[in-house]
């Protein structure tokens, strides 16, 4: 198209490849970069290269770690309870749980969930590494904190069967009404889970 | 925060600087890049550098052009009417007008609009270059195609006064109801413009 010169077309195309970024947004971002300083553009480019060159995976928990830092800071921290492993799908889930300050154990990052539709079986996830940790002994509890959706539930069921012979306690995070939510507007499945997961009211 | 390693934090921060990208979206994009291939990340980084290194401004119309291509393809095209200049705010506006196929003249890109609130006066825009083109002679019509908002209107009024002594005809694109729109839902200002801009129905 007249006016759309090659370097501009190329950046629009690359931005469009990112998830949730359509052509219009990609155009807007591209013209922003065009107007921004060269330093700003270089900083983003350097951060993109940096994340590929300076990120590695922890050999213990499989979470991302800075290149050369293995095991990761969390796995190396002697103040964390080593007998408790919280299993999550993605590195961002570790951040979410850390933000709560409620969990003081270790993590294991699967990097995905079982999804037959997408052709993702347990062998595509970091399940072997998790089984090794469980069979090595010293683990009292594995908390399955995969997402409360179809894939996450399937993954939790699979892992529960896999780990039960080796670990004293395999638990699943509670599913129920979100705090601040409204019973009237809750979906049926959440309400059913909420009833099934009911607990005695402490005096 | 535990788990948020430096290269990841840095890319989240850089993505957040882009317009319309909040922290959550920046996190999502960052973890997408982390999972994507190194080639994909490098391609985006190269496109970012490329747009700063390979884009220049046409010395005639001030639109962006590939480095070394001056005047730009549109200004160099002998098939375009050289007596008609369409003035727009941004390079993307040139694309929008070219898409219609309705205009066969030349362009002039201001790179912004007059905005006293943001401290942008006419001297910050490419108005001097436009005046030079107008005073050089041979221009029958200048079409002011700045945006139909406060800044765009102010810019059009300013340019009309500036150019009128030098150009036979200074016109403004029509403002009115968008095609496919609904009179009932049109805002008052648009409706007023639409009435003011009424034209005799051709037989």
Folded structure, characterized:
The structure is a homodimer of 203-residue chains. Chain A is built from eight helices and six strands; from the N terminus they run αααββαβαβαβαβα. The first copy, chain A, is α/β, with parallel strands linked by helices and 203 residues long. In chain A, strands 4-3-5-6 form a four-stranded parallel β-sheet. The first copy, chain A, has a two-stranded antiparallel ribbon with strand order 1-2. In chain A, helix 1 crosses helix 2. The longest helix of chain A has 16 residues. The radius of gyration of chain A is 22 Å and the shape is globular.
CATH class of the largest domain in chain A: Alpha Beta
Task: Please identify, by name, the CATH architecture of the largest domain in chain A.
Answer: 3-Layer(aba) Sandwich
Structural class of chain A: alpha/beta
Number of strands of chain A: 6
Q: Can you write the helix and strand succession of chain A as a string?
A: HHHEEHEHEHEHEH
Radius of gyration of chain A from CA coordinates: 22 Å
Question: Main β-sheet of chain A: number of strands, strand sense, barrel status?
Answer: 4 strands, parallel
Percent helix range of chain A: 40-55%
Instruction: List the total number of helices of chain A.
Output: 8
Shape of chain A: globular
Largest interface: A-B, 61 and 60 residues
- Percentage beta strand of chain A: 5-15%
**Oligomeric organization of the protein chains:** homodimer
- Distance separating the two termini of chain A: 73 Å
Within the CATH hierarchy, at the fold level, what is the topology of the largest domain in chain A? Dna Topoisomerase Vi A Subunit, Chain: A, domain 2
Q: How many distinct domains of chain A?
A: 2
Low-confidence stretches of chain A: none
Please, what is the average pLDDT of chain A?
91
What is the spatial order of strands in the main beta sheet of chain A? 4-3-5-6
């Amino acid at each position: 198209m007249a006016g759309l010169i090659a370097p501009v077309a190329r950046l629009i195309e690359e931005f469009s490849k990112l998830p949730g970024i359509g052509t219009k947004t990609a155009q807007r971002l591209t013209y922003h970069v065009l107007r921004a300083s060269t330093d700003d553009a270089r900083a983003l480019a350097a951060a993109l290269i940096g994340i590929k060159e300076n990120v590695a995976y922890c050999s213990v928990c499989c979470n991302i770690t800075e290149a050369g830092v293995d095991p990761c800071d969390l796995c190396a921290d002697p103040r964390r309870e080593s007998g408790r492993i919280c299993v999550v799908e993605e590195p961002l889930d570790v951040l979410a749980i850390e933000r709560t300050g409620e969990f003081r154990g270790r993590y294991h990052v699967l990097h995905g969930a079982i999804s037959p539709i997408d052709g993702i079986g347990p062998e595509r996830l970091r399940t072997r590494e998790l089984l090794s940790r469980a069979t090595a002994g010293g683990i009292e509890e594995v908390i399955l904190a995969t997402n409360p959706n179809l894939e996450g539930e399937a993954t939790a069921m699979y892992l529960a069967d896999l780990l039960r012979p080796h670990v004293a306690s395999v638990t699943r995070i509670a599913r129920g009404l979100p705090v601040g939510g409204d019973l009237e507007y809750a979906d049926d499945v959440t309400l059913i889970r909420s009833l099934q997961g009911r607990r005695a009211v402490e005096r």
